[in-house]
């Protein structure tokens, strides 16, 4: 059972990102109730999501909450009660670098019609602050070539090539 509505303790969020939000917008941790605020629909602007039910969402939310290494943040438009942007930081514990931690930035998305409001920049800034707050010595982000200039403006550097292998029969083919 979910012990809290929020995925993680919101006190880890830096105040600077909230200050950059337009009126009636808030940046905050993902909440289990965000399913009904269009979180999944927002993600569909990034990739194929599939037919995620509210129960599936709640179960995954609980798993992420229990693991304690998932930090999904959203920007909510309070006027429409809709999620307009999101991003995820997954913190990986390592043995290298004196048992350090690496932050993996994933699933950065801004809903259609919401571009140009600097939501993507605010999400990246907040995820980088979360990486620092959780003790990460570096953060990694994979992106397509056309998104490199945006992420460079956010302070990230192009460091190489990503490789991937998909498991046959998995959901990546949705």
From TrEMBL:
Keyword Acyltransferase in annotation: yes
This protein's UniProt keywords: Acyltransferase, Transferase
Class of the enzyme per the UniProt entry, highest EC level: transferase
Domain of life: Eukaryota
Organism name: Coemansia aciculifera
E.C. number(s) listed in UniProt: 2.3.1.4
Protein name: Glucosamine-phosphate N-acetyltransferase-like protein
């Amino acid at each position: 059972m979910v012990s809290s509505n929020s995925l993680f303790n919101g006190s880890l969020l830096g105040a600077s990102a909230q200050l950059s939000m337009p009126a009636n917008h808030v940046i905050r941790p993902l909440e289990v109730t965000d399913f009904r605020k269009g979180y999944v629909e927002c993600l569909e602007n990034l990739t194929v999501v599939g037919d995620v039910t509210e129960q599936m969402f709640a179960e995954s939310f609980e798993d992420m909450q229990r693991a304690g290494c998932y930090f999904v943040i959203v920007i909510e438009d309070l006027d429409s009660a809709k999620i307009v942007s999101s991003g995820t930081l997954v913190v990986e514990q390592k043995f290298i670098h004196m048992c350090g931690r690496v932050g993996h930035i994933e699933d950065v998305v801004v809903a259609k019609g919401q571009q140009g409001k600097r939501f993507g920049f605010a999400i990246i800034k907040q995820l980088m602050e979360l990486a620092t707050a959780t003790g990460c010595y570096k953060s990694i982000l994979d992106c397509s070539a056309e998104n490199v200039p945006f992420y460079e403006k956010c302070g990230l550097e192009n460091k190489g090539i990503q490789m991937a292998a998909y498991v046959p029969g998995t959901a990546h083919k949705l």
